[in-house]
Amino acid sequence: MNKIVRKLLRYLMAEFCAVWLLAIITYVLGEAGIIPNGIMADADNPAAGVYVNTAVILLTLVCVPLSLKLFSLNTSRGLRRMNKDEALASYHLWSLVRLGMLWLCAEAGLVAYYLLMDTTGLLCACISMVMTLLCIPSMEKVNEFLSANEEERAENIQ
């Protein structure tokens, strides 16, 4: 079982690093001018910038807490009916969902920053990336999850 947990941790760490790498690549693309800098920062149509900023802010306000709450709910509820393999698969799936939602917010914020050259998008991207630090996989987190799974199953049997 310990071998399976280590394998899961390697996958989770690779996925975590991929999220950071993709965000760094987007940043580099923006700094290199491949993402057209300031193309939407148009004096003729200031409403477009407001709409983009509003969308990025709303995405961040919804996705950041929702991703963390979904992970918490889906890795704590329903553990009684899962064996260890199913529980680890569920943990991996919801870790991916959580990281994916945070990555989506960060990418949207970075792209909005470069398109508008307005720091609102950059702030949203930074918030999302800081929240990914809560997702750093560790043996302690997985073991805590597995012990909760065993406790739930033991209570269900009695």
Strand content: under 5%
Helix content: over 70%
Morphology call: elongated
Distance between the termini: 25 Å
Structural class: mainly alpha
H/E order of the elements?
A: HHHHH
What's the helix count? 5
Low-confidence stretches: none
Radius of gyration: 19 Å
Chain-averaged pLDDT: 88
State the total count of DSSP E strands.
Answer: 0
What does this structure look like?
By secondary structure, this protein is mostly helical. It has helices at 2-31, 46-74, 84-116, 119-132, 139-157. Helix 1 (2-31) packs parallel to helix 3 and helix 2 packs parallel to helix 4 (119-132). It starts with a helix and ends with a helix.
Structure in a nutshell:
With 158 residues, the chain is mostly helical. It is built from five helices and no strands. The longest helix is centred in the middle third of the chain and has 33 residues, at 84-116.
Strand and helix layout:
Blueprint: H1 2-31, H2 46-74, H3 84-116, H4 119-132, H5 139-157
Helix pairs in contact: 1-3, 2-3, 2-4, 3-4, 3-5
Features:
elongated; 5 helices; 0% strand; single chain; mainly alpha; 158 residues; 79% helix
